[in-house]
Design a protein that fits this description.
By secondary structure, the chain is an alpha/beta fold. 36% of the residues lie in helices and 25% in strands. A hairpin with a 4-residue loop joins strand 7 and strand 8. It has 14 helices and 18 strands. The strands form three sheets. An eight-stranded mixed β-sheet has the order 3-6-2-1-9-11-12-10, with helices on both faces. A six-stranded antiparallel β-sheet has the order 14-15-13-16-18-17. A four-stranded mixed β-sheet has the order 5-4-7-8. It is globular, with a radius of gyration of 22 Å. The protein starts with 8 loop residues before the first helix and ends in a 13-residue tail after the last helix. Helix 7 runs parallel beside helix 9, helix 8 packs antiparallel against helix 9 and helix 11 crosses helix 12. It binds adenosine-5'-diphosphate, aspartic acid and magnesium ion. The site of adenosine-5'-diphosphate has 19 residues, from loops.
């Protein structure tokens, strides 16, 4: 029997890792648990992992479009639902998946227990709708694992330090899984989804995109931040900070997927660029009559993550995902502002570009040949992002994918 009491996350991770070998965290996304047959298939997969001798913790998302449906319902009843109540509502979807899957596991002759985020000991701050995990009190999970049960944890949610139910932001089940993997000292965190891994571009847009064998944390952070929604951004940050290796793979096959881990020379040998990502819509704001310090303080107080910022003279242009909150913060500030949503963003990402000039040149000449004019450009050491008209985004993605030859076998980094 375990002797662990409620422990903070770093303590659990460092002290217990050695004795918790053989723990696997397996996360299944919405499509992967989309109907009863798929839930049964997940149950079989979890049982197989258990029969192979692992201590199995599963994190499940809500079935199919359940979360979208619940959000829609909330807005049907109220134009501005209270954040606390919205979290109470939308956290329900994950509970449905976990309890149903536990039933299916019982029918396969194994023990299982479903837990809400709160029951699993996932403690968050009080920021409803985008709460951050501050602690994992894993005692109950350990006890269930010691009792040879498969543990199913409802993704995307926790309980706040004020004892309210919180959610972690859209796509947040990824973060639940990574945080649990860190707290339980799991060997790896497996993210099962509806594509075969992380691709050189969204495989739903670029038919000849290649599955990447390995991607560094830094690259994956940039990819997630610039639109590759296959992993929630915060889950990648968490994985990097706690050294959790991620394996993104298909729910529907046994094939190996993509490993997200520390950068390795071999990753860069074969291909400079790891991928082309995009966001179909960007909310771009133009503000005048306020200092940058005042503006960004007000946005920070509103809990808004600002993305690209360009300042020319008295005018500040920036992009932010949280439309309603940003509008409200600017209203409160009482400044002159306007917004446009006719732009999207296309980005080229690759750790190799740090040491190889010419990537920007190729990106701009490719866009020029396609007759696409970037309106705003944002860069980091391993990313170049161009804001382009929304209607041109997909053409730009395909054009850049071709220009950087990401359809070639080398792009997959099979040996990295
Ligand atoms: P889940 O429900 O399993 O969490 P998501 O819908 O959140 O799945 O993420 C998977 C989707 O991410 C894929 O269906 C794919 O369309 C999209 N996607 C965007 N960019 C990429 C990329 N570079 N590689 C893989 N998938 C991507
Ligand atoms: N169900 C939640 C969402 O749709 C969380 C997740 O799937 O990761 O955003
Ligand atoms: Mg997701």
């Amino acid at each position: 029997m375990t002797t662990i009491e409620y422990e903070s996350l770093p303590a659990v991770a460092s002290e217990e890792t050695a004795t918790r070998a053989g723990t696997v965290v397996m996360k299944f996304g919405g499509t992967s648990v989309g109907d009863v047959e798929r839930l049964k298939a997940v149950a079989r997969r979890l049982v197989a992992a258990r029969e192979a001798g692992n201590r199995v913790v599963a994190v499940l998302s809500a079935m199919g479009d359940t979360t979208d449906e619940l959000v829609r319902l909330a807005h049907e009843i109220s134009p501005r639902p209270k954040a606390r109540e919205l979290d109470m509502l939308i956290s329900v979807g994950e509970r449905i998946s976990c309890s149903l899957c536990a039933m299916a596991i019982h029918d396969l002759g194994h023990e299982a227990i479903s837990l809400t985020g709160s029951q699993a000991g996932i403690v968050t701050d009080t920021a409803h709708g985008k709460a951050k995990i501050v602690d994992i009190r894993a005692r109950r999970i350990h006890e269930a694992l010691d009792a040879e049960r498969i543990v199913l944890v409802a993704g995307f949610q926790g309980v706040s330090t004020d004892f309210d139910i919180t959610t972690l932001g859209r796509g947040g089940s990824d973060t639940t899984a990574v945080a649990l993997a860190a707290a339980l000292g799991a060997e790896a965190c497996e993210i099962y989804t509806d594509v075969d891994g992380v691709f050189t571009a969204d495989p739903r847009i670029v038919e000849n995109a290649r599955k990447l064998h390995a991607v560094s944390y830094g690259e994956m952070l940039e990819m997630a931040a610039s639109g590759a929604r296959v992993l929630q951004l915060r889950s990648v940050e968490f994985a990097r900070n706690h050294d959790v290796k991620l394996h993104v793979r298909s729910s529907f096959s046994e094939a190996a997927g993509t490993w997200i881990r520390e950068e390795d020379e071999r990753m860069l040998e074969k291909a400079l660029i790891s991928g082309v990502t995009h966001k179909s819509v960007e909310n771009v704001y133009r503000v005048e009559g306020v200092s940058a310090a005042q503006l960004f303080r007000a946005l920070a107080e509103g809990g808004i993550n600002v993305d690209t910022v360009v300042q020319t003279g008295p005018e500040i242009v920036f992009s932010a995902d949280e439309r309603a909150e940003t509008d409200a913060a600017l209203e409160r500030l009482g400044v002159e502002w306007s917004t446009r949503d006719d732009l999207g963003q296309v980005s080229v990402i690759g750790a190799g570009m740090r040491s190889h000039p010419g990537v920007a040149a190729k990106m701009f000449s490719t866009l020029e040949e396609l007759g696409i004019e970037p309106e705003i450009v944002s860069t980091s050491p391993i990313k170049i992002g161009c804001f382009v008209p929304r209607d041109d985004v997909e053409r730009a993605v395909q054009g850049l994918h071709d220009a950087f030859e990401l359809d070639r076998p080398e792009a997959a980094r099979t040996h990295g």
